[in-house]
Amino acid sequence: MIARSDTKTALLNSAESAARRFGFDGFSYADLAKDVGIRKASIHHHFPSKADLSVALMERYHRNFQRICAEIDSGCETGGAKLQGLIRQYKEGSDNGRQLCLCVAFSASRDSLSPDVIKQIGLFRGMVTEWLEKALEQGRKDGSVSGVHSPEREAVSVLSLLEGAQLLARTDEDPAVFDQAITLLTMRICG
Amino acid sequence: MIARSDTKTALLNSAESAARRFGFDGFSYADLAKDVGIRKASIHHHFPSKADLSVALMERYHRNFQRICAEIDSGCETGGAKLQGLIRQYKEGSDNGRQLCLCVAFSASRDSLSPDVIKQIGLFRGMVTEWLEKALEQGRKDGSVSGVHSPEREAVSVLSLLEGAQLLARTDEDPAVFDQAITLLTMRICG
DNA sequence: GGCTGTCTGCCTACCAGTAGGTAGATAAAC
DNA sequence: GTTTATCTACCTACTGGTAGGCAGACAGCC
After folding, report:
1. What is the CATH number of domain A6-186?
2. CATH architecture of the domain covering B49-186
3. In angstroms, how far is D8 C1' from B96 CA?
4. Which 8-state DSSP code applies to residue B173?
5. For A75, which of A68, A97, B105, B175 is 20 to 30 Å away at the CA?
6. Chain segment A69-127, per-residue pLDDT in tens
7. Which nucleotide is nearest to B53 (CA to C1')?
């Protein structure tokens, strides 16, 4: 049994890529079917509804991102270095302005989403915000981030800046715009 | 002739509201027709295609926003006060987290958009960025904004923060999230 | 004044294509 | 012999868009 459910993974991969490029309303089961190479109806076997698929998408995205955050933690000494690590992640995630973070893509179509997906977006943001708060706190203590007053409030603000930067870079499909857009953050990272 | 084209305005109003709530792919001609009270086909008389409608939407949005910026300019003394004015505008524009700036809503669906609309988004952002650059420059000179080093780079970053803040506030439909999300900016406005 | 042609704004009726989703069959795997 | 993964064939609802008609306003002209 090489792959109990390669198809399921292939569907998630295809759906994630499509959602991040076209948004929640911008891709269909027919698109996925063509991409993965099975019939449209067969997708319903793996994900009964588009809402189920979206939730599964967010859950996987959440897990992956959590793992990446842990890797940054273990690979970086200072709070500033950790912030740099997350910035790199968001920049790479935007694929040179060709796509968005999944929760940015979903947020924009909020009112087309199922309540479960909205809940997942909240959980994801909560996880990232908590991580950012710790990194900022550490950066304040070790002097690698300047001007930190309220790690809690600023964590939300940093996330907001990163998501906004992806959005701006997306319009021009230009990674340089991303770098410029996060100036308010980078100018404060010392080490 | 009370109204040569009230219908056209009504269509633009309905479409703007829908686009900002559901995104570009989240509203249809049928929705607009029902909302405005004419038949779906009649919309094509005013806007031959959805691309035409979207361009008209962005143009009107651009003009309105430009007027608002001018009003802020004439009503505020310091650079910091002008920034506060723009922040208020973005917060009010998000209608307590129930909708987004039109160009945020459109950006997320970029690959479903016509090239003309993408161009319009660029023009809008250029206009706001230029305005922000002047406000930051002024704030540096009059001391109402602290830590300004490169008004040009930081202008893009401020816009990115404002758009990101709308996005975050949207998920929870909570205006308090917006306030928290712009901390990186407000902590630097002195007067 | 009345006549005529044009323009505006809307209508009904329709198109091909696509959306997400369902029913039921089939064949292989455990 | 049930479970798993897929298929064909279909459904209803809706997508943006088109064709053609029609009532009223508005001009210029006699």
Report:
1. 1.10.357.10
2. Orthogonal Bundle (1.10)
3. 49
4. T
5. A97
6. 999 999 999 999 999 999 999 999 999 999 999 989 999 888 888 899 999 999 999 99
7. D16
